[in-house]
Design a protein that fits this description.
Number of helices: 18
Strand content: 5-15%
Shape: globular
Number of strands: 13
CATH topology of the largest domain: Rossmann fold
CATH class of the largest domain: Alpha Beta
Radius of gyration: 23 Å
Largest sheet: 7 strands, parallel
Strand order of the largest sheet: 3-2-1-4-5-6-7
Distance between the termini: 65 Å
Length: 444
């Protein structure tokens, strides 16, 4: 062993090691594109929305280029040689696109993931850390802007599709080259979110650490404002998000509701009325999602024939949540297919959110055969046919949650029938339909 001691961790050294691994390198536009690029799609991490767009673009044989931070094609050599556990994590960044249409910018995102795993908190500190989510997104945004200018020297770019917090330099470059700017706003606009969550911090001060948006800096908020102003079209997943946009920009907003999982992925189990009614909360354990109100409702409910199952990532130590309501059943986060299996073992979804975009968990639960109890702010108001697919309750109303949950416990047969209707409703909203709506807006 060398006597020099351990080497200091540095982002540059991490990037250097990564570049030596097959399949882990910036792909894409190192040379002149071999095809005409008309559509650019960007997303720093990849999600269900952008995957639906990529699938539809591929299906329609559209000439597109996809930018992300850390990304692979399914057959990338790296995915074949890493340990199984790491392979499962990296496979979440695999995209079904031709290699030549994928451009990655992985270094800072790789460091972010490593720092989180090693608990190097200084690197990922909110907005300030070199590998914080915000710094990763800004670095990615600058990279995409540079690449758009390079592409435009060879081929005309028709349209650029980008997402909140990673679009300002992308859109500035798009405007320089005469491309349309399509902006996906997946959650309520920051002014509305900040106002509502600020009210929650005063209403539930002990829950304030779970309301991260209240800590956003003026610079971050200014970037969000600039992105909205640069956009030609703003795509909103729900009426709640659309109405949160300032009135002067609302005429360029369009609705494109998210899709549901395929029903074949989540066949419901037979109802079990002999056991307690299981009410599921799924999502980050935050008051942004109304968990304090749900706990308050269960404190008032005091029924032995009802159970609360809470699945998600804690933002505070678990004893904090147990002090609010000690009797909930905690389920940690898990892969998507296992989430659907858990849903099949429950009877109702309760999501009394304060700020969302369109919480995907609503349609996932419905596809699994669960009626939903949600607020309009959860973004699924159109999903609720009152008393048929679920119930709509106001925000900040534990008493209404008590009323609906108690009704469910007293009407198990009706809840089972509502689950069947909820499943039918979920089936009407597909990812293909969402992608088609977005692409129609590109073509205008």
């Amino acid at each position: 062993m060398s006597g020099d001691g351990p080497r200091a961790f540095s982002p540059a050294s991490a990037a250097g090691h990564c570049s030596a691994i097959p399949g882990c390198f910036p792909q894409g536009l190192r040379r002149k594109p071999a095809f005409a690029v008309t559509q650019i799609i960007t997303h720093p991490t990849g999600n269900e929305f952008v995957r639906a767009l990529l699938a539809e673009c591929t299906k329609r044989a559209i000439d597109f280029h996809f930018f992300t931070t850390l990304g692979f094609t399914p057959g990338a050599p790296l995915l074949q040689v890493v340990p199984r556990r790491l392979r499962a994590q990296l496979s979440r960044r695999a995209f079904e696109v031709p290699k030549e249409q994928l451009d990655t910018h992985p270094w800072r995102e790789t460091v972010r993931l490593m720092a989180k795993g090693l608990r190097i908190n200084s690197l990922v500190r909110h907005e300030r850390g070199w590998a914080s989510t915000d710094r990763v997104f800004q670095d990615f945004d600058a990279h995409v802007g540079r690449q758009i200018r390079r592409i435009a020297k060879v081929f005309p770019v028709k349209s650029v599709h980008a997402y909140e917090d990673s679009a300002i330099e992308t859109f500035q470059a798009a405007r320089e080259v005469g491309a349309q700017c399509s902006y996906e706003l997946p959650i309520a606009y920051w002014e509305t979110a900040r106002r509502l969550l600020g009210e929650e911090a005063r209403r539930w001060p002990e829950w304030e650490p779970t309301l991260q948006a209240t800590a956003d800096s003026p610079d971050k908020r200014e970037r969000k404002t600039a992105e909205l102003e640069l956009a030609d079209t703003v795509i909103c997943p729900s009426r709640f998000v659309l109405n949160s946009v300032p009135a002067k920009h609302r005429d360029k907003c369009r609705l494109a509701p998210f899709g549901s999982p395929a029903l074949s992925e989540c066949k419901p189990l037979p109802s079990a009325p002999q056991r307690p009614l299981r009410v599921l909360f799924a999502g980050t354990l935050s008051q942004r999602k109304g968990l304090a109100d749900l706990f308050a409702a269960f404190q008032r409910l005091k029924r032995k024939d009802v159970e609360l199952v809470v699945m998600g990532t804690p933002m505070l130590p678990m004893p904090f949540y147990r002090r609010q309501y000690p009797d909930f059943i905690y389920e940690p986060p898990r892969p998507h297919d296992e989430v659907l299996r858990l849903m099949q073992q429950c009877d109702l979804l309760a999501l009394p959110s304060i700020v969302e975009g369109r919480a995907l968990v609503q349609q996932e639960a419905m596809a699994a055969g669960l009626p939903i109890i949600v607020t309009p702010n959860a973004g699924g108001e159109d999903l609720v046919e009152e008393g048929r697919t679920g119930f709509l309750v106001p925000i900040r109303s534990p008493e209404r949650l008590v009323e609906k949950i108690a009704w469910g416990a007293d009407h198990r047969e009706e809840i089972a029938e509502m689950g069947r209707l909820a499943r039918q409703k979920a089936a009407t909203l597909t990812w293909g339909h969402y992608a088609s709506l977005v692409m129609e807006l590109w073509e205008r």
